[in-house]
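User: Okay, second chain of the day. Same drill as before: sequence in, structure tokens out.
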Amino acid sequence: ESSLGYLFITKEKSLLFVDGRYIEAAKSKVNGDIEVRLFTNLSHDVKSFLGEEIKTLLAETSNTVADIRSFEKIFGREIIPSDTLEDTLHSLRLIKNDYEVDCIIKAQRMAEKAFDEILKFIRPGVSETEIAAELEYRMKLLGSEEPSFGTIAISGEKTSMPHGVPGDRRVKSGDFITMDFGAVYRGYHSDMTRTVAVGNVTDEMKNVYDTVLNANLAALEKVRAGVKAADVDLAAREVIKKAGYGEYFTHSTGHGVGLEIHEN
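Assistant: Same drill. Structure tokens below.
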């Protein structure tokens, strides 16, 4: 696991530069088609690798302008942000192979197990922050490398916010609790959202919960190879619209996951 590395791909070879903190890990984990090299002076080492014949480098458009300018100074080459490169990488990651699917499933199983365990922890008096921390702790014990993203655990009136931030509010009887969280296994992310009630629910709460559940089931029924994501979204949206809550469905039905928490 490295937070710093520079991958260069030419027609002849692929080379990953890392510093001394990550050289052992990189050599043990990186695919054999990619040469791993320790850099001591990044500018000098990269220029030596590029030689005189490589004058221009392409970079993903997801890099910031500041990063591009910094790389140009370090590497002594013009760097062109490339939509083609970005699109190629996205297309390569769009369809997961069996190994990647297995990693995502394992990450999801960790999150599911943590959810089962957190139900015994939730009770009147515990805070949102405590629930979020406990979820992350339990996923870690189950083998998660880190949370997929900042864990969401919100209660009561705050559950109307899809991306609410956990705070000091303490759970009360009759509350909804919404949790949005995920685990990471070998770099691959999972993501799940669950809402539970504490003690009792009103008729309106039950109606809203059942509406969302039925929308979820309608979307799952629609999912199969060859179906557009828009059609899956529409299946869920129609259920919620018919129930009278259409104006409150202000986000998409789902998103891809993988090496990043949001992927095409």
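The radius of gyration is 23 Å.

User: Thanks, on to the next one.
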